[in-house]
Structure prediction request, 499 residues.
Amino acid sequence: MSHRVRAVRLSTRIKGLLAATSASLALAACASVPGANIAPGSPITQAEAQQGAEYHEQFVAEFGGEMSGPQARYVSQVGQNIAVQSGLATSPTAFDVTLLNSSVNNAFAVPGGYVYATRQLVTLMNNEAELAAVLGHEVGHVAARHSARRQAAAQRNQLGGLGIAILSQVLLGNSALGNTIAQGAVQGSQMLTLSYSRSQETEADELGIQYLESAGYDPHAMASLLSSLAAQNALDAQLQGRANATIPEWASTHPDPASRVQYAMQLAGNRTGVVNRDSFLNNIDGLMYGDDPAQGIIEGRQFIHPELRLSFTAPEGFYMVNGTRAVSINGDAGKAQMTTAAFSGNLDSYIRSVFQAIGGQNANLAPASIQRTTVNGLTAAYGMARVNNGQQQIDVTVFAYEFAPNQAFHFQAITPAGQAGVFNEMFNSMRRINASEANAVVPRRVDVVTAQRSDTVATLARRMAYADGQEARFRVLNGLSGNAMLVPGQQYKIVVRSN
Prediction:
């Protein structure tokens, strides 16, 4: 959760974009969308270029911010080289490739020559060809004008792992309240996209592989990248205690990556090309891995934000996903978010405004009463509203804390009626942290090391900066499936603590 964000909802301009743009981030299809009547593979039009340029900065802000430096320049160079293979433009410099500061595995491209990848997804890759593959796949969607051609009635995709949005489908159904909550619960660092059809995903894979071959890369990189994504999804689900291995990661918007691996291998056939493994690893050495402390970090069930000087603990059996605008807390017994909104010094007014934002102006959602309390020295207040969605009753709870005369934070939670107490432990765990605790937060980074003859998967895995799943994390990070062994003299990634 970025300390720079002070609103629960997307800005009006972002909302306008999400209602009108095409490519991976589009939400609504209509004939007026740029690209809807353009032949696949045609060059970027002036309308598409204007659209992409108009919203580029806001996309970057919503998805964690733009990274700079040699690592970002390297990703940009590779992305421009693969994007120009699409025929959308004749010069690599016509494409703007951005490395995003996000801890979510994510990539997308939009009309106008704008291509994006998160640092987390880049750290999952093991060679330059895989980087080109994922960016080529996204450019393929744009070149084929997929989202401009999708059906207007296609279902909106919620952000992967987003607690309130997902729960609204389960508990609130298709009600106006459910839709409003889902819309108001957006997190910038998660991928907001309409699901592509399987045929569109297949076509994007095919185009991406064509681009790889044109650029001289090994076309098998598409399959190995998809395999790593599937493995990472499964590992995340296992570590978080989830049965569903498709959310909240990037592949949730790209259906079933595991089923596409075999087809991608078939498409690649016996063709070969360069992978540039060592060059890639050397260029990403030191790249931040996982949460950026400037956006707060998740350590097990604890969330700690060294700049906002706050911390809380999720209930047992729940897992968290950090976003640009909010932290979502997800579990079978309920869903919640921790976020912030405009605060003028009155907690009662603050809580009522949050309820209104959740329910929408036409829903008249308001708490039955507001109770004052103190939590770990913080002035706090909470309210609850019970809603009938036609099938069952649910409780919407807002629990707010005053941190300064002009700064408050709150949890907004949805649970089945009578079960709001599942979050009491979390509500009562919110606290300020001191300077010493804040200074002790050190980010994780990728450290590229060369395997010695005495090294094994187990010895290198023990150097991973995690208390759990060290070997499983190491294997997925390095694309080592099954019982694959280390190759002495070859470079591998580990994750360490380093400023």
About this structure: Residues 221-240 form the longest helix (20 residues). The two ends are 19 Å apart (CA to CA).
